[in-house]
Specification:
Length: 107
């Protein structure tokens, strides 16, 4: 996140505010996603439990970031719900891709 934050700061100083905000937002998302992956190292928990807890952590951290990012127009509760649906669909796709890669490469 340090490098992304530095890039965001440089973009801000160059008055490229939109890209600075987007880069900083992406760095926060990357930080929380990366930090939460340690959950998958807890071998005492079932895979379903690890996946469920990871989803809850993403819902608590990444979803609000998406709502505040400026990437989506949020003017009604329905707009926030549509972002939630997008969040869930992208999460499912990424989860399936990572499961497939883990099986292929025996992670």
């Amino acid at each position: 996140m340090h490098y992304y934050g530095g890039i965001a700061l440089l973009l801000y100083f160059q008055r490229d505010y939109s890209d600075a905000r987007g880069t900083l937002t992406a760095s926060f998302i990357a930080f929380f996603v990366g930090a939460a992956t340690v959950i998958y190292n807890i071998d005492l928990w079932s895979f379903a439990k690890r996946s469920g807890i990871h989803f809850i952590i993403m819902l608590i951290t990444v979803y609000p970031i998406l709502l505040l990012s400026g990437w989506f127009t949020i003017s009604t509760v329905l707009d926030a719900f549509q972002v939630l649906i997008f969040f869930v669909l992208v999460g499912i796709i990424l989860w399936l891709v990572m499961i497939t890669l883990a099986k292929v490469f025996s992670w």
